[in-house]
Design a protein that fits this description.
The complex is a heterodimer.
Chain A: E1 5-6, H1 12-19, E2 25-29, E3 44-45, H2 48-51, E4 63-66, H3 68-75, H4 79-88, E5 95-97, H5 105-114, E6 118-121, H6 125-139, E7 143-147, E8 149-153, E9 156-161, H7 168-177, E10 181-184, E11 187-192, E12 198-202, E13 209-212, E14 216-219, H8 220-224, E15 232-234, E16 237-243, E17 259-263, E18 266-275, H9 281-296, H10 301-316
Parallel strand pairs in A: 3-4, 4-5, 5-6, 9-16, 16-18
Antiparallel strand pairs in A: 1-7, 2-6, 7-11, 8-9, 8-10, 11-12, 12-15, 13-14, 17-18
Chain B: E1 6-8, E2 13-19, H1 28-39, E3 45-49, E4 52-55, H2 59-64, E5 72-77, H3 82-94
Antiparallel strand pairs in B: 1-2, 2-5, 3-4, 3-5
Helix pairs in contact in B: 1-3
Classes of the chains: A alpha/beta, B alpha+beta.
Chain lengths: 317, 100
Amino acid sequence: MWRTAESPRITVADFFDAGRRSLQLDWEVNAAHAVGREISEVALNRPGLALAGFRRYFAHRRIQVMGLAEMTYLGSLPVPERIARLRALGHVPAIVLSRGRHMPAFVRAAAADARVPVMRSHLVTGLFMNAATVLLQNLSSPRIRVPGTLVEINGVGVLLEGEPGIGKSEIALALIKRGHSLVADDTTILTRDSTGCIQGSAVEITREHMEIRGLGIIHVPSLFGISAMRNERRLDLIIRMQKAPAGEDDIDRTGLDTATRSVLDVPVPLITVPVAAGRDLTNVVEVAALNQRLKQMGHNAARELDDKLKATLARKD
Amino acid sequence: MDSAASHSAAAGTVTRDVVVLNRYGIHARPAALLVKAASRFAGEILIEKNGVKVNAKSIMGLLTLEGNHGAKLRIHASGPDAAEALAALADLFARKFFED
């Protein structure tokens, strides 16, 4: 049912924006050329060999990281040679100077001519390589945008889904009032991170906002404080809200059968809850989240009761 | 811009391509107009931009679409009143959501 997969195309500007704080980035030159400039191979490369003249194999589609080794090597060359070697790197997506180093002015002028975006990171090279690799992996992880409201209930990430108007946002609001937090209202972005977990977050433009019928659009942290919001949360449980059918035939009454839905090839537990007038769904959702946590800790109440029943019945046999 | 509605045999879904003509694009007010119009119809109505589909009955969904001026969108409608739904929504786009 969720068909709209987005295969992210990562640009140098995306990388800079995402890493500005964590990688302590700022621009050295050519920031304007970063917009729309694709990183076609989502990884890092140290261009030492290429700078030394070996270009038969050079990972030119990757972001190039110039650490102390590269800078010291370039510094050992005569000035025209330095510029020539840098130019010979060709059309790389971007260059990062680690340790917060600046380029010498004449090198910067050459880079400006070549239109290659150059940024600085204040981290040492090793730390930068580690942190930037994780960041790039997260940016390029598979993602889908799904209809549904994501909340965090006592440390459990719950996606509420159901037709527009069924009451997802109202339940999220009631949960916020009880001290739980909102991740995304109505539309949630799910990504599979490098550890294989599904992470949910809001679409940037509508983050922190909800629409409540009759009230319109509200800003959650202004009304309820910053603790009512979370930027990201792992998805532990999907609750599908369904208008109660006459027979309720497909509703699980025991909790013995654990349904799952495949999200980006990861199975996620799925509960279907019938919506009927007068039913306090907030309570049901809250308890479902707690019950899910119990299951994750290894306790399955339905199965334990059923085992006890079976044992008792066997004795009476 | 009102390209002919096309039928996809598979799911009984009809689609129509539209262009955002009003200057400010799909901001809160146009989104509310679309939701109001879409909610009059029984079937599912989705609006697509660059492969991302959102439910036309959801304001927040429509806002995440970031339908700027000039954006090319596709409306997908299904259900018994799909053709009327397409016409009603396309009409709002054509009238620039009563703006400009």
